[in-house]
Amino acid sequence: MNVFALGASRNIGYHAARRLLAKGATVTFLLRSTSAFDNDEVIQPYIRSGTARLVQGDALKADDVQRGWEAAQNAKDGTIDLVLFSIGGTPTFHATKGFLVHPHDLCTKSLLNLVTTIPHALRTPSAQPRFVIISSIGITRAAHAELPLLLKPFYGYFLRGPHVDKLAMERVIAHCAGWRWDAETPNTEILPATWTSLPNLPAFGELTHVIAIRPALLTSGACKADTKKGRKEPYRLKDGELGDGYTISREDVAHFLAEGLLSNWAQWEGKAAHIAY
């Protein structure tokens, strides 16, 4: 499997990439700093073997993303099997605005750069890679209403800024994948009203192999799936709001992606997989 990974220097993307490398995949990482794995004893053997390929670049710069596409293509005769988009910034706290990510349109702009630089050879239906995009629960008004009661204040205040960005990002996903959009219009400071006129933006429904993963509140806990005992599943999955799902560890989201989602792609293609304990 040939993978192009954006946002995989840490968190869900990193844990998923590590699992995919262990399965024999080749992963091209787009990294703002190629020194991100200098002291990583897990990734270093894959770098030495050539299956982990590091490309210096910023997803906020379209030219850098285009170079990332080209480097990933060069890893396997011009084809790419999977694109993993897990970009998310390191939040800082503001007393009146909650957690903020800089820039405020990080996810949306990065995704727009990704989809508008897809190489021509990969845009035909038969050659398109699969896209997995990490989002979140609770980003629309309707989804927020389905959150567990105790999470509503936290999401409404602390995560308000990052979720404005993710809402706009999901609007772009819906367009490219041909999904119906019934939610509110994203903030035009994040996604300008003219965004559908961007050069090289995929047409409505042009990307045919897209899945969004919407995790519950993320934790840094261990992967429960790796130590599963008995018949109870380590986490719950649903194509729709779980309602009573509070948390999920980043490790378990990565486990689902690498160990479950890819082997059951037909079940989830064109859907949003909600995951929580």
UniProtKB/TrEMBL annotation:
Residues 7-175 form the NAD(P)-binding domain. SUPFAM superfamilies: NAD(P)-binding Rossmann-fold domains. InterPro entries: NAD(P)-bd_dom, NAD(P)-bd_dom_sf. This is NAD(P)-binding domain-containing protein. It comes from Rhodofomes roseus.
